[in-house]
Amino acid sequence: MNTKSFGILTAATIMLTAGAANANLLFDIYAGGTYGFGGYTLFADDNDISQSAQSYGAVLGMDIPLFRIEMEYNYLDSDKIETNLAMVNAYFKIPTPVLKPYIGAGIGTTFSGKYTPTNLPHIDIDDTMAYQGMLGATLNLPVLPFNVDVEGRVLYAPDIMPDIDLLQYEGRIKARYVF
After folding, report:
1. How many CB atoms lie within 10 A of CB 89?
2. Average pLDDT of each block of 10 consecutive residues along the chain (179 residues)?
């Protein structure tokens, strides 16, 4: 077994066994999925392009009383842009009983993307750093092991193509299963 496979197997085992034994602990392990709808703008020197877009994703994280930390994968899809995003996010939560407002930030990278201009072949998107900010609220269902987040997100990825920056903005819903 190679080192990468061993590391993934070890991390998955720790996450799943810690989730089953966390009844008296101060943190919850969760996994979930996301769906977002909004738009993007490509900032070029003389010509800015804006279009609608949607995203699909998956999250894996840890929820502690005032903070939440998660790993996130997103696939951004529109008529002209397709790209993958890997992010690490941190959230600060306001502790209220059922509806918990939060603010968050994330850092990560774009990878394996393409841009398809009208009537031209596609152009590969460079792997580059990406930054995002989130503002939302979590609906904590006390009896069920599910949480639902509704949030607004803004993502910025500079230089995805030579001299072109990406700004993506969306409303998103996230369903999380708490182990």
Report:
1. 20
2. 60 54 71 97 86 96 94 95 96 90 98 88 92 96 89 96 93 96
